[in-house]
Amino acid sequence: MILAQATGVEGSSPILNISIFAIFVIITLAIVIRVSRKASSGAKDFYTAGGGFSGPQNGIAISGDYLSAASFLGIAGAIALYGYDGFLYSIGFLVAWLVALLLVAELLRNTGKYTMGDVLAFRMRQRPVRAAAATSTLAVSFFYLLAQMAGAGGLVALLLDIKSKTGQSIVIAVVGALMIAYVLIGGMRGTTWVQIIKAVLLIVGAGVMTLWVLSLVGFNLSGLMGDAVSHVGSVGEKLLSPGAQYGKNGTTRLDFISLGLALVLGTAGLPHILMRFYTVPTAKEARRSVVWAIWLIGIFYLFTLVLGYGAGALVGPDTIKKAPGGANSAAPLLAYELGGTVLLGLIAAVAFATILAVVAGLTITASASFAHDIYVNVIKRGQVQDEKNTEVKVARRTAVVIGIVAILGGILANGQNIAFLVALAFAVAASANLPTILYSLFWKRFTTQGALWSIYGGLAITLVLIVFSPVVSGKPVDAATGKSPSMLQGVDFHWFPLDNPGLVSIPASFLLGFLGTVLSKDKADKKKYAEMEVRSLTGAGAEKSVLDH
Amino acid sequence: MSTESPPPGDVTTDHPDWETVQRSPEFQALRTRLRRFVFPLTGAFLVWYLLYVVLASYAPGFMAIKIGGSNITVGLIFGLLQFVSTFAITTWYVKFADRKFDPHAEAIRREIETGEIER
């Protein structure tokens, strides 16, 4: 998500926006402090809230974790400006949940305890596989976190009218400090409640705006789309057909397919999503949570479709493009058009809440992975005395370190073109994590070497392809802005033609996992596979909820 | 089972013989039941999704055809159908899991936990 540095959205009242956001922070902090009193001090409570959430609660929290500011502001804006092409994002992000529902969620809940590494290392040599799983978890979380934090900087410029870099840096630091506070005080329990509150606000807010837009056009979607087209922006009629953004030539078409692949296969490999399945007591509740998440996320994306075309029709693509933040300002501008300063303030606060909830979820996942996989199992070889306190202490300290890194990274990346980072996080998740998860769960012969090849191979291929892609260097200079859309200006070392590496990196990782397995000298551990398969399907010996005894 | 079950990877002495359970006809049937349902369905929705992506990319003319003089295009309908199919598959799977999978899985789990399967 990228937002330009310029004056705030017209009609925006920074003081009102900040007040509404402050109320959100006060209320959520109060709730986090309240729920944290019920918590016991152990690792289980810190990482997974003792597995005590119900399916519906977790489903709402998942949608709160998943619907980032990029999906709210970015998708609505992309639909307003590029029409149909923006729709692909929402469809990919939604269909992806079927992979999680059918293949991953329940089996993962039955075999793991706290992290993705628990499942991947289940029948493998513990130390190398856990180290690999943690590396990939930290990489995905870091890219995702950086994108969110830098986005927070842009959002400040857009909604609070803070133009100076110093002012924006202070706001990024405040967001980071709040995130650390939520995680330290509330652990997974507090983070989950923040996500639940945010999801309700976001979905209700988008729903109200959708009904409002539809009532203005007499609930006639066709008429709304006609209005959007008649505002002939730069693409006009193309708003209704595919190709406004990706249809230029053979390369951009392949890019579209590559993006589509990474979107649909990435979700079920995102560590912060996987970890949410441990917060419910049983596999059946994990299933219910995915069902809730699918309905909520699907309905939300249908709202963004109306909001995107609504912004195109009521605000007009030219106004959106000229506004600070470009595409990302479509939804806030539409809010102002509909409900004036107050609705704009509410939507701005919801957008902030969104960033806060997502970064808190990422932080707790990354710190759990470091403390549980790397510290306890790799460094201490599982021999931690007083496991309860030591592990949580390490996790808390890690959360603080991650928070500080995220603040510094966010300040450095503020204003940079880092929009590709979310796509990168999805590409790594789809390449390094998903193949390894699926092989672990379903392929009897899969070995330690296969797991290491698919994780490290997938991660390395994805990173190399991104570094040498046009996203980083070598896109032609845009005459209108005088800048190249690439991250680096004035250099060109790209040789990979696509912006999105998924088309190459995902099949390559599946292949590496296969080759690593058939070429390894060790045979798979049959006993462990038997245990994993029986446990994953029947739930026997699964991690119990602390609440049901 | 104790409430704090051993972490994955720990070998405890009182665990059931997982390989015996795995070889049992009940478990084999359970596994086949799940795989026969989820694998073809996964293949189907992935193909259906990729069809949409490929059509949007390589047949924009077809996707831009307007239906009956409205501004609703074939592409929009295709996109909305992806939502419909996702909701439908979700509902279908839950029905399958609740009625045809869970009872069998629970029966095997009870046998494991009471030690019956090792007779």
From TrEMBL, chain A:
Family: Belongs to the sodium:solute symporter (SSF) (TC 2.A.21) family.
Compartmental location: Cell membrane
Topology of the protein relative to the lipid bilayer: Multi-pass membrane protein
Protein name as catalogued: Cation acetate symporter
Keyword DNA repair: no
Gene3D superfamilies: Sodium/glucose cotransporter
InterPro entries: Na/Glc_symporter_sf, Na/solute_symporter, Sodium:Solute_Symporter
TM stretches of this protein: 15-35, 66-84, 90-108, 129-147, 167-187, 199-219, 256-278, 290-311, 342-371, 394-412, 418-439, 451-472, 502-519
Keywords on record: Cell membrane, Membrane, Symport, Transmembrane, Transmembrane helix, Transport
Keyword Membrane: yes
From TrEMBL, chain B:
Pfam families on file: DUF485 (PF04341)
Keywords associated with the record: Membrane, Transmembrane, Transmembrane helix
Classification via InterPro entries: DUF485 (IPR007436), MFS_trans_sf (IPR036259)
Transmembrane segments: 37-60, 72-94
Keyword Membrane: yes
UniProt KW Transmembrane helix keyword: yes
Name recorded for this polypeptide: DUF485 domain-containing protein
Organism: Pseudonocardia ailaonensis
Taxonomic lineage: Bacteria, Bacillati, Actinomycetota, Actinomycetes, Pseudonocardiales
